[in-house]
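PROTEIN DESIGN WORKSHEET
SECTION A - STRUCTURE
LENGTH: 245
TOKENS:
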């Protein structure tokens, strides 16, 4: 499997620092983790470590893994910068047992990470692998910005617009897949560069997640449409799942 983030990892955080955009998300995790008595967490698509940092700052014990070696390298660097050294491993989330033998109170897989897998078989394999790393009574948390409502949005979205850097998403989708063409433009007098990354996601909405999670043996599946835990509906801007083991 190709690492789509091999180069992108080093610019990924141009989205902005976690402190700037994760306010609601931090409160959500603190509330949900308190409810399920979560103390240790595995982020199995940790990317540049932004959620690991958020959770460490909230006092949780964390470990992280990601398929992309570059993402792991950037996560290590980011967390080192804050004086944190959690366990970080390169690992495909379909096969977590190859790297982790312990179980966690929660496994998280956030921001459109699971939909990198395209077949039902791979998706169920990944969800089972995650379930096996969660203790009885623990939870899996998934999140995505792809919803019934966001699919209706105009296909071009300027997600970062600074004086020195812009990031534009150009999105297209059919019934089964969504492709996001990410265009990065560096445009100050010292740095002029453009890069494009094309990421193809399996289109997964509430009912798809429910079906896959049931097939993978999860007991109760809660689906929220925002970080205030309002139920998901056709107007939701987020799709957040808390599945119980
Ligand atoms: C859109 S990024 C999200 C990263 C991070 N969770 C965040 O919220 O910023 C998707 C991440 O999923 C990872 N990923 C994709 N397929 C994976 C797989 N099979 N196993 C583990 N990680 C995977 C990518 O390497 C990338 O870091």
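SECTION B - SEQUENCE
RESIDUE ASSIGNMENT:
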């Amino acid at each position: 499997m190709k690492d789509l983030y091999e180069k992108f990892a080093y610019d990924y955080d141009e989205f902005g620092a976690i402190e700037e955009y994760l306010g609601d998300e931090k409160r959500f995790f603190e509330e949900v983790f308190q409810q399920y008595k979560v103390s240790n967490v595995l982020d199995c698509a940790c990317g540049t470590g932004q959620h690991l940092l958020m959770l460490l700052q909230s006092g949780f014990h964390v470990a992280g893994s990601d398929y992309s070696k570059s993402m792991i390298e950037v996560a290590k660097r980011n967390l080192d910068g804050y004086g944190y050294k959690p366990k970080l491993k390169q690992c495909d989330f379909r096969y977590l047992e190859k790297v982790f033998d312990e179980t966690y109170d929660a496994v998280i897989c956030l921001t459109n990470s699971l939909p990198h897998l395209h077949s039902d078989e791979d998706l169920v394999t990944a969800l089972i692998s995650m379930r096996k790393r969660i203790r009885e009574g623990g939870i899996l948390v998934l999140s995505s910005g792809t919803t019934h409502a966001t699919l209706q949005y105009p296909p071009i979205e300027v997600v970062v617009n600074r004086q020195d850097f812009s990031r534009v998403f150009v999105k297209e989708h059919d019934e089964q897949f969504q492709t996001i063409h990410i265009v990065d433009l560096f445009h100050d007098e010292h740095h002029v560069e453009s890069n494009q990354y094309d990421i193809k996601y399996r289109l997964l909405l509430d009912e798809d997640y429910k079906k896959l999670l049931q097939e993978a043996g999860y007991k109760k599946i809660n689906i929220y449409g925002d970080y205030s835990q309002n139920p998901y509906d056709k107007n939701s801007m987020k799709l957040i799942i808390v599945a119980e083991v």
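SECTION C - NOTES
The first helix runs from residue 18 to 21.
Residues 5, 45, 47, 50-51, 66-68, 71, 92-94, 110-113, 116 surround S-adenosylmethionine (CB under 6 Å).
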